[in-house]
Amino acid sequence: MSSSSSSSFFSRALGAGLLLALLAVFPLVAPLFGLEFYIGFVRRVLIAALAAASLNFILGFGGMVALGHAGFIGMGAYTVVALSDAGVMSGWLLWPAAALVAGLVAALIGTVALRTRGVYFIMTTLAFAQMLYFVVVSLRKYGGDDGYTLMSRPTLLPGLDLGNESNFYWVVLAIVALALWWLHRATQSRFGHALMGIRDNETRMRALGYPVFRLQLVAFAIAGAIAGLAGALLAGGNGFVSPATMHWTQSATLLVMVVIGGLGRSWGGPVGAVVWLVLEEALKQHTEHWHMPLGLLLIAVALWAPKGLAALYKRRLPLTPTLSTTLSPEGRGSKP
Question: PANTHER family recorded for this chain (predicted)?
């Protein structure tokens, strides 16, 4: 590792550490300024950041333009509903189960959707997500279109009351931080490099011997599982789950977050989620026509920051390795 890349790594690590520390102390500081409401709001932003990052994993790094990602969030949330209704309250069981169910559903959908390309892939993912939406609407046991209210939040450790807003916030922060770190590491791995190679030139990667369909399917399932985890955290935080969580408009909102933040940037999803939700919250307090300024923001990003807001950070590394440096199946980089 060169001195320049080493200093860049440590500066990024320091910045991430400082951000994590600031987020960790926020629940302690917020009550001093009468900002208790924003503990729940920041928690919601963290969960949205995780969901957006999971979409960016397949969209920005994998080139798979999916318009049904909210369906996986809903599957995670309704897994929590079903297990809670059956008497399961442990977060150690609820959250992994939500990720597993959503990941399996994503794998099944991906098995079909990934055999299509372009607009047909978009429409296939949208169709499957809407099918899931209408399935949960028909489940009268879990409230149907009216939604389902959870009696209490999950349990985690003896003596740790997750009914306390600050305690639940810290648990969400820890889970989101670990998941985002794992996603970042995944994009830097051989698997991530292969995924980006497929995004840039699928034909060449197939000619090099890569199992393109299998790699895309694994990535799609991983993204679905992490979205399901976000849905489980959202259900626990809100105490209420509705089919509206998995409507196609929610998928479109996630897509917009990723575009605003930056496709193929590790921080793209989180940055987009923060900008979108903070502006939405601020604008709602001043006008009922808050959609219009957000639409103008999207147009401005498309015109003046097409690579997303995360790309405006001048001390960034290159977006992704080029095809000439993509790892071969034997693990060797091509010679320049």
Answer: ABC TRANSPORTER ATP-BINDING PROTEIN, HIGH-AFFINITY BRANCHED-CHAIN AMINO ACID TRANSPORT SYSTEM PERMEASE
> Hey, is 48 helix, strand or coil?
helix
**For the segment 59-81, what is each residue's pLDDT rounded down to a tens digit?**
999 999 999 999 999 999 999 99
State the pTM of this model: 0.89
Residue 335, in any domain of the structure: no
As for how many domains the chain has, the answer is 1
- Hey, CA dihedral for 217, 218, 222, 223, is it positive or negative? negative
| Residue 9 forms part of a structural domain | no
Q: CB of 47 within 8 A of CB of 237? A: yes
DSSP state, residue 335: P
As a whole number of angstroms, the distance between CA 321 and CA 30 comes to 42
CA nearest to 52, candidates 227, 249, 215? 227
